[in-house]
Amino acid sequence: MTKDGDVLRPYPSMYVECQYWGSLNPVEKMLHVMRTLAIRHPNMVFAGISAACAWGLEHSFHLHSNDDRIMLASSGGTPRNGYCERIRRFYVPQHEIERACEISGVRVTTIERTLFDCGRLYEGRSALSFYDSALRQGMISREDLIAYCDEPHRARNQHQSRALARFANGLSENGGESFCYATMAEEGMMLPEQQAEFSDMHNAGQLYRVDYLWKLPDGRLIVGELDGQQKYVDVSMTNGRSVEGVVVRERNRQEALKAGGVTQIVRWFFADAVRRSPMIDKLTAAGVPCGTVSAPWIR
């Protein structure tokens, strides 16, 4: 990426205002570049994480910080254009390329192929969010996804895609929750119920949903919540309420959970899950059992 005054060049022969580019997240930046490439090269088929962006599959932005190249489906050969350093040619069988779909203004690999490739490219806990997101949005059934990933001799590291297809359930409401759930499985934590609901006894019809719920043998109920400052300042998450209104609602929510038998609420940030031990230590301190690794992609 090169910068000249108020304009920068994110990719060869592409220019954009610095202020506008800086307002975009990594997914939006990738989609802008992909759409520009598609105008010049309408036959391009995007794959991997690039296709995932077009499909609207949730995933952690840190996957883009490690490698922001555009992934292009290729059945063979080497690139012969000026974009070679910023494009990663990714092998996809020709018959799969011919099945490409047009999504978000670009041609991409099918949803099952996109998930299959993302599942084997990234570590399991990062890749689960792609799968949960697709299942949650009804893009593919779990049965069809498993059948696709089970077909033998598709590609290297296929075992991880196969394991993720069986483990994913689509219950996580966002990529962060999927990441935390997968981390718990990798660390051998007792896996919780997801999106459990509690009724507010003082407000008929009001339900409060929690990210994770552990029902322990001794009768204790432990709630786990992925927290973040955006819950208090992001309009999309506050339904337009003021910070004060959000705080009051959260207080009412905690009272309803306690009335519903919850004995402890454990909160952590996404960074705690990335580092593993901060999240795991909080859960074990609260009494959540830790034992055998249950992540099927770990062999």
Condensed summary:
This protein has 299 residues and is an alpha+beta fold. The chain has 15 helices and 11 strands. It has helices at residues 18-22, 26-40, 48-55, 62-66, 94-97, 111-121, 124-136, 142-150, 158-167, 175-186, 230-233, 235-238, 243-259, 270-274, 277-286, and strands at residues 2-4, 7-11, 14-17, 70-74, 87-91, 101-103, 106-108, 193-199, 207-215, 221-227, 262-269.
What do you see in this structure?
- This is CTP synthase.
- The chain is an alpha+beta fold and 299 residues long.
- The protein has two domains: 169 residues, no CATH class; 104 residues, no CATH class.
- Strand 1 and strand 2 form a beta hairpin.
- Helix 7 crosses helix 9.
- The protein starts with a strand and ends in a 13-residue tail after the last helix.
- About 4% of the residues have low confidence.
Task: Chart the SSEs and their pairings.
Layout: E1 2-4, E2 7-11, E3 14-17, H1 18-22, H2 26-40, H3 48-55, H4 62-66, E4 70-74, E5 87-91, H5 94-97, E6 101-103, E7 106-108, H6 111-121, H7 124-136, H8 142-150, H9 158-167, H10 175-186, E8 193-199, E9 207-215, E10 221-227, H11 230-233, H12 235-238, H13 243-259, E11 262-269, H14 270-274, H15 277-286
Parallel strand pairs: 4-5, 10-11
Antiparallel strand pairs: 1-2, 2-3, 6-7, 8-9, 9-10
Helix pairs in contact: 3-6, 6-7, 6-8, 6-9, 7-9, 7-10, 8-9
